[in-house]
Amino acid sequence: MGDTCTRGCRFCSVKTSKAPPPLDPHEPEHTAEALSRWGLGYVVLTSVDRDDLVDGGARHFAETISKIKQKAPTMLVEALTGDFGGDLSMVGLVARSGLDVYAHNIETVEELTPFVRDRRAKFRQSLDVLEAAKRAKEELITKTSIMLGLGETEDQVWDTLKGEYIITIIIINFFASFILFQTIRLLPRIPSLSMLPFLQPPFLLPLLSPLPALQSSSSSSSSSSTTTPIPFP
Ligand code: SF4
Predict the structure, then answer these.
(1) Pairs from 87-90 (Cβ < 8 Å, separation ≥ 24)
(2) Nearest to 149 by CA among 110, 109, 114, 120
(3) Rounded CA gap, 233 and 212, in Å?
(4) Which residue in 50, 75, 111, 231 is deepest, having the highest Cβ count within 10 Å?
(5) DSSP state, 172?
(6) Rounded distance, CA 168 to CA 89, Å?
(7) What are phi and psi of 170, to 5 degrees?
């Protein structure tokens, strides 16, 4: 779907344009063919946002996933998508295309969203995307990621993880912005102690407990370890 995004999130250094080049119609076939030859067990597809396209590129995503599953039925496929401009029917289209894991990143806490993400990306809209993916295909694993160290408070992080917010999100990744960082434009990088509790194994391991659902669909032997979710403060 190209190397040029129609959005301009402040943490991202991808090229941006209002009118990127058109999609390559052969990309789904070529991608599926290459992946099937590599013999991988798990692949992650992602793309720039394409707000210039009527469907946001959802059909291109869905076609790619469908072709991968035709050529390599045992390969697990994760798609990290944009929000398709809030068009949840397009989210459903991708979710039902044969996908195993639907990923869409909330990136940061709600309070910092306007300062971190492109103005068209909304925190609640991203939650709607994840919920719509889960509704479209119940057994689908949904996943999101959040960067820590942008100035969020610990309470804001806990609020993000609580209650309704994570009702449909199975896996949450945390990225420590001071470790991984690329370039943050216009944003001060504020070292934040808020990330410390969330980088500890006792917090991270329980979040992995839903993974057996995914593992059972692969041929790998399953782990016998079980984890108990820790209570939110
Ligand atoms: S939508 Fe994704 S690729 Fe585009 S600017 Fe934002 S983070 Fe970068």
Answers:
(1) 87/55, 87/56, 87/58, 88/128, 88/129, 88/132, 90/55, 90/56, 90/58
(2) 109
(3) 26
(4) 50
(5) E
(6) 17
(7) -95, -40
For residue 94 the two structure tokens come to 């991708």
For the Cβ of 82 lying below 6 angstroms from any atom of ligand 1, the answer is: yes
User: Is there an atom of ligand 1 within 6 Å of 8 CB?
Assistant: yes
* Residue pair 150/190 in contact by the 8 Å Cβ criterion: yes
Element (H, E) at 15: strand 15-16
- pLDDT value at 167 more than 80: no
Atom of ligand 1 nearest to the CA of 16: 5
Q: DSSP string covering 42-107, please?
A: EEEEE----TTSTTTTHHHHHHHHHHHHHH-TT-EEEEE---GGG-HHHHHHHHTTT-SEEE---B
Per-residue DSSP letter, 19: S
Q: Tell me how crowded residue 136 is: count the other CB atoms within 10 A of its CB.
A: 19
Tell whether ligand 1 has an atom less than 6 A from the beta carbon of residue 28. no
Instruction: Provide the token pair at 96.
Output: 């039902």
